[in-house]
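Look at a sample.

——
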Amino acid sequence: MAQTATYPNDPRIHVDAEHLLRLGAKSRAISLLPRQPARSILNGRHASRLRGRGLNFEELRSYLPGDDTRTIDWKVTARTGEPHVRVYTEERDRPALLLVDQRVSMFFGTEVYMKSVIAAESAAIAAHRILAQGDRVGGIVFGDTDLAEHRPQRRPAALTRFLSSVAALNCSLNASLRAEPSVALNDILKQATRIAHTNALVCVFSDFDGVDEDSERILRRLAQSNDLILFNIFDPSSRQLTPGLKMTVSDGKHQIELDSSEPSLSDRIKASMDKRLAQLQQWSKRYGFPIVPMTTAEPALDQLLKQFGHLGGRP
């Protein structure tokens, strides 16, 4: 759904690449590394901690006093009659893949921002932090008919290209879009499994419109081999319509008038959104990946600071 009125120069409606690049300097307190503040959402009861970078096998050598006995290779020790240990080193970096939803369903907001703006800013902040951590960052930015794939790289120029793609698709959103959708959420999730094979960080910034049983299978596969985080972008109207709210919305093909004074309307919208959220939460518990809720009512940076353990939106 999307509101019909658009304001091209309003950062609550559209964001440009320069704005997304500037967010890097404001997000230094946020970390996507395994060690998290006590109040971080990644320390929640149903959320898995980030595993961080993996280990590379370096060599097999004789045991020396002081070596960790847990690294002893018992098969080699039994074969040679002398204790041997396996030596590992931490990977220099790891890939991060950010999936950024800029479909027309994201072009909606009844409070302060469009969902598409919150997704774009949240992804930009995460991308800045990942690169600052020394890891590779890339992603897939997708709309209803277009997508841009960026393979993870550890270069500022690659970050700039990724954020330019986010801004381009964000600024292309408008209420008059009438193109037949050809890109589905599951298509993007499947594409992610072909890029993020193992030990990657995969972040999805979306309202998750269109999730189904196939989505569960793909998310399970991503979570089994990688660190998966879902950033669920929602508008407060999906919980409760503002009394007296009247608006025109469109899905890109059809347009309808909504009036919150209609008794059953708010209940129908809430039931639909509750069902979607219940699916995500069930999968979160089952497969151990966290869900980070993001609303259109507050700036993305303030929300991320709170979600990652900095009360009041400040470190």
Notes: The first strand starts at residue 2 and ends at 3. The chain is about 35% helix and 20% strand. Residues 1-6 have pLDDT under 50 and may be disordered. The CA atoms of residues 278 and 284 lie 10 Å apart.
